[in-house]
Amino acid sequence: LARHIDVALEKKLKADKVAPSPRCADGEFVRRVYLDVTGQIPTADQAAAFLDSKDSAKRSRLIDELLASKEYGRHMADIWQALLLPRNSDNRRLMQYYPLLVKWLEGQFNANSSWDKMTKDVLTATGEIDKNGAAVFYLANPTADKMTDNVTRMFLGVQLQCAQCHNHPFTDYKQDEYWGMAAFFLHVRPSGNPKAAAKNKDATIGIVEAVNAKGKGRKGGLPESAKILPPKFLSAQQPKTKGSDPVRPLLADWLTTAENPFFAKAMTNRMWSQFMGRGIVNPVDDMHDANRPTHPEL
After folding, report:
1. Per-position b or e across 61-89, b if 16+ CB within 10 A of its CB
2. Separation between Cα atoms, residue 142 and residue 140, nearest integer Å
3. Residue whose C-alpha is closest to residue 248's, from 194, 189, 160, 290
4. What percent of the chain has pLDDT over 90?
5. Which pairs count as long-range contacts for 3-12, CB under 8 Å and 24+ apart, including other chains?
6. Which strand ranges, in their side-by-side order, compose the sheet holding 127-128?
7. Mind listing the pLDDT tens digit for each residue in 128-179?
8. HSE toward the beta carbon, residue 30, CA cutoff 13 A
């Protein structure tokens, strides 16, 4: 796999007549890899042990060791809670709950959960937040439009919010497509009052999803431009809904399958950007035909 990636990079460098940078020294490598994988520099003893080692495979071994360390999950959780949880005045009273999601994310990363499983668990989260930290995502994005904006940006790499009030000005996305995606979140509600619970340490707060038989949502908290439409996957089919069954699992299942052309590319692009400093498509969350990847093969 590494060689396959290198071939694509070398091909582009040659076409652009750019000489590749030389292999970094061990001192540079050990500092970079600790920062990239764990978010902190090595201790003096850790650095010395690596520099003194004569093992020809010591770089790959160190990467494996760091990925298996608790610090890896903690660092990844720090990165992803910042992406998933908006810091704004509306959420200032909810920030005390954010560590619950951080703890959940840390556990998922350190258990080597797959991207599709983690994404499904976040998208379908219900119950009390102290028992399921993933549900905090919904407290921080409390309306269907905010959920749609964040989910499509994070997990599809698409700036769909530009189609909220009118057809997207730069792509083919229509306003109806936006509200078709928003329909998956119209029935998600907090159980209890999050702001009141923030003042009362004994109060419990959670997330519930209740769908009526006709599948129609409410405009509560949504902008005037909101359209109440049946759930529909982005640039894909309209799923068959059953009575009062929750609809988020339908979205989660579609979003993480090979039938969805966005998810795998979006997550690959995010990880590449995190470790390389710039996405294969840049900005990472604005993937469309006019914003071409630097290396389409990758």
Report:
1. ebeeebbeeebbbbbbbeebbeebbeeee
2. 6
3. 189
4. 72
5. 5/298, 8/295, 8/297, 8/298, 9/295, 12/294, 12/295
6. 127-128, 206-209, 188-191
7. 999 999 999 998 998 999 999 999 999 999 999 888 888 888 788 899 999 9
8. 16
* pTM (two decimals): 0.90
Going by their DSSP bridges, the two strands 188-191 and 127-128 should be labelled as unpaired
Helix (H) / strand (E) element for 197: namely helix 194-199
CA distance 6 to 298: 10
In total, the chain counts a number of residues equal to 298
Q: Is residue 101 within 8 Å of 134, Cβ to Cβ? A: yes
Q: Tokens standing for 196?
A: 């009141």
CA gap 251, 239 in Å, rounded? 9
Handedness of CA 133, 134, 139, 140 (dihedral sign): positive
